[in-house]
């Protein structure tokens, strides 16, 4: 039984990192005329209303996107993401946000006629929202089925250009292993794709075991980004957020070296820290 609903967390500090990186990756892909495939294994609802009961109950976006949206000193690399949120909220000059895009909402902004989008989602309510969100979006394929299997079934994409986002809820501990294993298997089928894997920092040993699985695999060219609000702890709760990115755009590490110190200042505190590390060379 699935209980995770991303609506509670939309626009929080983890979304800021994940979605700003997704924006930079998709922006980079559209610099070439040739079409590409975007595959989202765990899509969520597509778009979120920050005024609804879910987002208001946790208020997580208030220590995320809401703190950045009207800042005058946005780093250049974060600007495309901020512009996208502003476009969705044209009348919110006071910083009161109404809409926040999920990963399909970010993708929709970038995908062109020559590109194809494949979205997987299991939850019976979110698949309905996602299907409604995709109405009139051409070349998008939405499926209520397992995203891990879905990704593997679509690779290699006919265009031989692709971005895969794997963003599980980690409700089940097996997600840590499954997510990395899916990328390792996917890489064997399509080694030139860009893969983005999101993870929470809840228990450091789980992140370490993901890292070790990558390092012991055939995967090359792996970047790790992490932003922790506080030091690791044995207590319950998420202290940080991270991404593993296989075949990142060449300038992404430099861009995140500009973005992460800014996020630490705006969203973090003196205990906060970040990592930009090229874990496996090309
Ligand atoms: C973290 S949320 C996704 C957020 C979304 N990627 C975004 O950035 O806006 C994870 C989603 O995965 C869905 N889910 C859980 N297990 C799944 C599976 N095996 N295949 C596809 N979707 C799954 C959940 O219902 C939830 O909506």
Describe this structure in words.
The protein has helices spanning 13-29, 53-58, 79-88, 103-110, 124-133, 147-153, 174-189, 204-215, 252-267; strands at residues 37-40, 47-49, 99-101, 116-120, 140-143, 162-166, 194-201, 222-228, 240-246, 273-280. It is of the alpha/beta class. The chain has a single domain (11-45, 103-280), classed as 3-Layer(aba) Sandwich (Rossmann fold), CATH 3.40.50. Helix 6 runs parallel beside helix 7 (174-189) and helix 7 (174-189) packs parallel to helix 8 (204-215). The longest helix has 17 residues, at 13-29. The N and C termini lie far apart (40 Å). The mean pLDDT is 95. The site of S-adenosylmethionine has 20 residues, from helix 6.
Q: List the bound ligands.
A: S-adenosylmethionine
Spatial sequence of strands, sheet with the most strands: 5-4-1-6-7-9-8-10
Enumerate how many helices there are, as a single number.
9
Overall mean pLDDT stands at 95
CATH top-level class: Alpha Beta
Helix content: 25-40%
Fourth CATH level, the homologous superfamily: Vaccinia Virus protein VP39
Shape annotation: globular
Please state the CA-atom Rg, rounded to the nearest Å: 18 Å
User: What proportion strand?
Assistant: 15-25%
Order of helices and strands: HEEHHEHEHEHEHEHEEHE
Which residues sit in consecutive blocks of at least 5 with pLDDT less than 50?
none
Annotation, overall tally of beta strands? 10
* CATH architecture level-2 label: 3-Layer(aba) Sandwich
Largest sheet descriptor: 8 strands, mixed
- What is the CATH third-level topology name? Rossmann fold
Which structural class fits the helix and strand makeup?
alpha/beta
Number of domains: 1
